[in-house]
Amino acid sequence: MVSPLDLPAGVQAFAARGPLWGAFVDALPRLLRDLLAEWDLVLDGPATHGRTALVQPVRADGVAAMLKLAFPDDESEHEALALQHWHGRGAVALLRADPRRRALLLERLGVGDLTDLWDLEACEVVAGLYGRLHLPAPPQLRTLTSYVERWGARLGALPRSAPVPRRLVEQAVSLGRDLVADPASVGTMVHTDLHYANVLAGEREPWLAIDPKPMSGDPHYEVAPLLWNRFDELAGDVRGGVRRRFHATVDAAGLDEDRARDWVVVRMLQNVQWELEARPGAPDDEWLTTCLAIAKAVQD
């Protein structure tokens, strides 16, 4: 039997995020029991977790696998669809799925990720995955432009007293508007959260992507997470470090530099907007500084 006490402390802590998260955590033990029985799975070690999901090592017909149970939000809705389309090419293989219950049975990968690689080498590894993952978008995916349009309106509505340079706000709103109007901003299935910790070592291939939050979008949208993750490593030369990562990624992936730069500015100012909305009156100043530093560094 699986009880709430069997859940990792980090998963139990999800409940503090609000009533919906509390209900998700409360339902996890029963959901796990049900899927172990329905899919004939055997527990194979202690559970782990990410930011939004329980990940339980299991065996399926003796084969090592991972059972992922994710919080039912928009970001996880089409994860199975993306993995199905990739068929294990450049990404973790999907063995079985119940999208309604946000349950995925995945091949088991290694524990190593790209965080221990030299950051520029890691950027090149991720850039090498882009071409394999960026397939024509299935029609079920939400469009990136529909989100950017809404985000841009909220960003533009920030008061002038907000702790962000108004010129950057206006620039990001203008760039976002132009990108929304560009047909090239949709049509490609993009991962949207492909950073160092979302690429794991595999046996079939050296590196495989995990945890997609897919949209129908623009490949150039993908670069920004490589700039804000592992940001502390850039202390002492933020501008140079950000620019080296940016150019290493763009060059290795064969992306258009100007378009990638525009998307970085838009994404970083969207991050600022979300932070100000999430913590009105008490935002994380360090995170705001990081976002603004990246937006400036790619342009200076």
Q: State the end-to-end CA separation.
A: 58 Å
In the predicted model, the low-confidence regions spanning at least 5 consecutive residues are 1-5
- Largest sheet, strands/sense/barrel: 6 strands, antiparallel
Order of secondary-structure elements: HHEEEEHHEEHHHEEEEHHHH
CATH superfamily of the largest domain: Aminoglycoside phosphotransferase (APH), C-terminal lobe
CATH topology of the largest domain: Aminoglycoside 3'-phosphotransferase, Chain: A, domain 2
Question: What overall form do the CA principal axes indicate?
Answer: globular
Q: Supply the CATH class of the largest domain.
A: Alpha Beta
Number of domains: 2
Rg (C-alpha, Å): 20 Å
Count of DSSP-assigned helices: 11
Protein structure class: alpha+beta
CATH architecture of the largest domain: Alpha-Beta Complex
| Content of β-strand | 5-15%
What does this 3D model show about the protein?
The protein is α+β, with helices and mostly antiparallel strands and 300 residues long. The protein folds into two domains: 4-107, Phosphorylase Kinase, domain 1, CATH 3.30.200; 114-297, Aminoglycoside 3'-phosphotransferase, Chain: A, domain 2, CATH 3.90.1200.10. The chain has eleven helices and ten strands. Strands 1, 2, 3, 4, 5 and 6 form a six-stranded antiparallel β-sheet that branches. β8 (199-201) and β9 form a beta hairpin. α9 packs across α11. The longest helix is centred in the C-terminal third of the chain and has 22 residues, at 257-278. The termini are far apart. The model is unreliable at 1-5 (pLDDT under 50).
